[in-house]
Amino acid sequence: MLPSCCSSLLLVLSGPLRARGHNGAEDDHVVGSGSHPSPAVPSRLFCFCLSPNRSEWRARERAKPIHSLPPRPRTRPLAEPSSRTAAALPLLMPPPVLRLVPAAAGAAPPRARGGRTGAGRGGGVRLRARAAAGEATPAPSRTQVIMDKISGGSEEVGGAGGAYSYSALKRLDQIWSSICGPQVDSKVPEVVTRIQGPSADSNVGAGSEIFDLIVCGGTLGIFVATALSSKGLRVGIIERNIIKGREQEWNISRKELMEIVEIGILSEAELEQIISSDFNPNRCGFEDKGEIWVENILNLGISPAKLVETMKERFISSGGTIFEGKSLSSIYVYDDRAVLKLSDDDFLSCRLVVDAMGNFSPIVRQIRSGRKPDGMCLVVGACARGFEKNTTSDIIFSSSSVNRAGNSGVQLFWEAFPAGSGPNDRTTYMFTYVDPKIGGPKLEELLEVFWNLMPAYQDVVLENLDIRRVIFGIFPTYRDSPLPAAFDRILQVGDASGIQSPVSFGGFGSLTRHLGRLSNGIYEAVEGDFLDAHSLRLLNPYMPNLSASWLFQRAMSVRPDINVSPTFINELLFANFQSMQKLGDSVLRPFLQDVIQFGPLVKTLGLVMLTRPQLLPSIFKQVGLGVILDWSGHFLMLGFYTFLSTFIDPVTRSWVESLPPRDKYQWKQYLEAWRYGAGLDYRQGE
């Protein structure tokens, strides 16, 4: 069984590699300072970097390509983030652009993908050495120079992409360093307090406005709120900033976008209005080993600004209430309701609190007791103007084997998509999977690598690009996901619940897949008053396809203590993609859209075993026997859930409809868990 499971691991590693950061990961923009100083960190942040020249280096630096310049020492100490400023970390650069000085005549452009670039000179921005107390101050980093050039003059908004300062990057790197620290933070503030008895026995929140449901976090929470408000519930949203989408596109397929139309909160005419770009075909490739081209996977760029504004108007017109500029301070849960204290000492009451505050929700942090994530995806990138070849996209591309970022070895992956802001505008992402431990690469170090390698990957000259927006972010993953409800009357949704694939960036794409299931289930729970923790756990159930996916992140990360070939990860991915391509779209397409299914997995398992058995020893080294055994259990449960959903579900649905309300609610959630946990919610041929 072990070789079979190991080979199966080979397959799924390459499947759900659809990076979701460009799909708008959720933010924890709701918790303010109050009495809880722990910073709320967003799930997605942004930055850009360039190499400056000090005056005394100009002559020798002028002869060097930009990619060979060493990292510059920092000029600022890391500041302790306040809870209010740290909560506003997600960045997306504003419209002002930075024009890089063209390279001197004769500078050769990059020749091939995957190699090191030799184009350009030491950057288009030169800095004067500053003297302080008779000594020269170290030059700022390339990242700081470009961030300072681009960041001025735009209003900050809530949600992913709302802030744009270099200091926010430093704060995130500081938080990332603290996550990598040797000790778990034992001083996790308690946002939620459970108080036995009815709320009438307490004066807390007496006379406050009462809702059926309050959603904390509005950028993506607006979708859940609108779906439930449209069903007739009285819904409120708390958002510490304003509910407004960013300018940078989210990338998604039309099939996934139609999920919102089917729910009834977006019309097809409105859908067409929010699409800003449409492109095909879409490429997967691995270090010159071969390329696979597919159609209609992440091939749409949609405008978050237009989509969120449309949802906001729909929500208000359906009777919803928005509390913008208000932060959550604490929640008191009574037997009959939850009372929310806001940052301005106002109170709101509701029957159910929906936590849509993203990966770093303070409620989730309390539930997990500040536990360190089991894995992390680090993402950097930029949107730039100046790409002449700009009609196709890359879903996943690896242009090299293991690289160095800071003091760490990393396997880097790329994504690239045409942007809707102009015919020559293109967004490029570089991401890697790492373990959260001391010595891990910092985002600023990854940004330096990004600007060194991106020109060769995209076949462009860096100095010829207008940098319009820059991107960076961290995405934690936990093995025990989705996160079950820990309190009565509080439910996590979206990235806060861990429902996203651990090898994706989460956000909007993963939310659309579960929006129908969640909105129906939450409505039934509220209507039936099934709001105890046990009943709410049924809405975030165990899903074997998701649990199996987490283990593949481990195999895609570089492990310095393991003696495997530096080309192993690329060989592994290409072997699996090649096998899935041979087996057809019914196998390949679900994997590319974050859906693991038992049938396609078994088919590819056999083909990989027959064609590439020599990879198995490296799999055991890279992943470990214990991890493979654990994965085997989820693999068997995936088959069991497939059987239950295929054969038991059809013959029990009529019986379920005849049950008493509470039993009916529970069994309907069991049936949904089987279907989604087996990946059978994905409909072939669409």
TrEMBL record:
Compositionally biased intervals (Gly residues): 115-125
PANTHER family recorded: LYCOPENE BETA/EPSILON CYCLASE PROTEIN, LYCOPENE BETA_EPSILON CYCLASE PROTEIN
Low complexity bias spans: 130-140
Signal sequence residues: 1-21
Coiled coil: none
Protein name: FAD dependent oxidoreductase domain-containing protein
Region spans: Disordered: 59-82, 106-142
SUPFAM superfamilies the UniProt entry points to: FAD/NAD(P)-binding domain
Origin superkingdom: Eukaryota
Pfam entry (one): Lycopene_cycl
InterPro entries documented for this protein: FAD/NAD-bd_sf
Source species: Setaria viridis (Green bristlegrass)
Keywords, comma-separated and alphabetical: Signal
